[in-house]
From TrEMBL:
<dbReference type="GO" id="GO:0001727">
    <property type="term" value="F:lipid kinase activity"/>
</dbReference>
<dbReference type="Pfam" id="PF00781">
    <property type="entry name" value="DAGK_cat"/>
</dbReference>
<dbReference type="GO" id="GO:0005737">
    <property type="term" value="C:cytoplasm"/>
</dbReference>
<dbReference type="GO" id="GO:0046512">
    <property type="term" value="P:sphingosine biosynthetic process"/>
</dbReference>
<dbReference type="InterPro" id="IPR050187">
    <property type="entry name" value="Lipid_Phosphate_FormReg"/>
</dbReference>
<dbReference type="InterPro" id="IPR016064">
    <property type="entry name" value="NAD/diacylglycerol_kinase_sf"/>
</dbReference>
<dbReference type="GO" id="GO:0016020">
    <property type="term" value="C:membrane"/>
</dbReference>
<feature type="domain" description="DAGKc">
    <location>
        <begin position="47"/>
        <end position="179"/>
    </location>
</feature>
<protein>
    <recommendedName>
        <fullName>DAGKc domain-containing protein</fullName>
    </recommendedName>
</protein>
<dbReference type="InterPro" id="IPR001206">
    <property type="entry name" value="Diacylglycerol_kinase_cat_dom"/>
</dbReference>
<dbReference type="InterPro" id="IPR017438">
    <property type="entry name" value="ATP-NAD_kinase_N"/>
</dbReference>
């Protein structure tokens, strides 16, 4: 099975071979009707400054034999005459350092990564530089909700689609303001303090969802790819999922405790995990999905998760809170009895942050922003 790209008018034929041993795909992931694709011209987004951020530790990592840049993108772009800069990460701070020095005022940035690398880039951009950045994801990570929101389900087809993009739309940001003293948490080790506000593009979560993301971030579990989330979820279900807090949307207060609490603009967190059926990454709104703790029922969380996998039918469950959050709304979450680090962990596009151990300083405010970051304008290439 292969994709053939016919580039006109140069009559350049490029064949991208879907080698299952290289890409670890199965035949069912490939739509045979897409095998032959006509590309009439290089898209405008690839005729400006093009940067490829290759997050080599995303997903299950890279090897020379499984390097999609070396084997596919580099020879393809060279054949098509697409000039680009390839930036391969070498440390946990590589993307932050790259973004803080980024100055190209009209650029396309292609991410070979998951959601977290895109988040790191956005949050580290130098706010005094004026420019326009169009972002395109090639889903290599474990969490690829941003790519899924664009209908991109595997790396090879994403590269094919990249050569056909014709639009750019605003990439809306969502601002979270945790208390001062909030720190990044990596494998349960507190790291540097978070600069406020912190922005996200696909998910801001607490309780069960944040816990399974945090607990799955170990070298051993990362080897299992997306299955690491389910393994961490099973471990979390061995203890009561009781997270004490109250939240409000404007003046509408909702009391906890909660087991699940998520804000997202996305429809899906996995190809079949329909977390927010009404979500649309191109709209400037969020959806809140939450449900309370049920101490006497051990199975209720998995019952609701099964509904999520069942086409998102959980939103009709009377126990599930499903609310649209518009640019005019203000969400505030106030933690209670959160001395334990397990109760103070939040997921921000895959990164984990931990609030300080301070009951008087444990409130977070979340609001819809726009696609501006300082004097940058951010767009989705699609």
């Amino acid at each position: 099975m292969s994709y053939k790209l016919y580039f006109e008018p140069k009559n350049l034929e490029i064949e991208l071979v879907n080698n299952e041993s290289f890409f670890q795909y199965t035949e069912e992931h490939v739509d045979k009707s897409d095998a032959d694709t006509i590309v009439n011209a290089i898209p405008d987004g690839l005729n400006r400054g093009v940067y490829i951020i290759d997050s080599i530790n995303s997903g299950i990592g890279r090897s020379d034999e499984k390097n999609i840049y070396t084997h596919i993108i580099e020879p393809l772009f060279k054949s098509l005459g697409i000039k680009h800069h390839h930036y391969k990460t070498s440390s946990a701070s590589s993307i932050t350092e790259f973004a803080s020095n980024f100055q190209d005022q009209d650029a396309t940035v292609i991410f070979l990564s998951g959601d977290t690398s895109i988040n790191e880039f956005i949050n580290a951009l130098n706010p005094v530089v004026t420019g326009s950045i169009s972002i395109y994801p090639v889903p290599i990570g474990t969490g690829n909700s941003f790519a899924l929101s664009l209908g991109l389900t595997d790396p090879l087809k994403s590269i094919v689609q990249l050569l056909q993009v014709g639009k750019k739309s605003p990439l809306y940001l969502y601002a979270a303001n945790p208390p001062k003293g909030t720190r990044y948490l990596v494998q349960d080790e507190l790291k540097e303090e978070v600069e406020l506000p912190i922005y996200f593009i696909v998910v801001f979560s607490w309780a069960f969802h944040a816990s399974l993301v945090a607990d799955s971030d170990t070298p051993e579990l990362r080897k299992h790819g997306i299955q690491r989330f389910r393994m961490a979820a099973e471990n979390n279900l061995s203890r009561e999922q009781k997270y004490e807090a109250d939240f409000s949307i404007n003046d509408d207060a909702v009391e906890g405790p909660f087991a699940y609490w998520v804000l997202t603009p996305s429809k899906k967190f996995e190809p079949t995990f329909d977390i927010s059926p009404k979500g649309d990454i191109f709209d400037d709104n969020l959806y809140l999905i939450a449900f309370r703790t049920k101490p006497s029922d051990d199975a209720y969380i998995m019952d609701i998760m099964k509904q999520v996998y069942d086409g998102g039918s959980h939103i009709n469950n009377p126990d599930v809170i499903y609310r649209e959050i518009t640019p005019d709304d203000r969400v505030q979450l106030k933690l209670r009895n959160s001395q334990s680090l397990l109760k103070r962990r939040f997921c921000v596009d895959g990164s984990i942050i931990a609030l300080p151990d301070d009951e008087e300083n444990s409130s977070i405010t979340i609001q819809v922003k726009d696609n501006a970051l300082g004097t940058w304008k951010l767009y989705i290439l699609h």
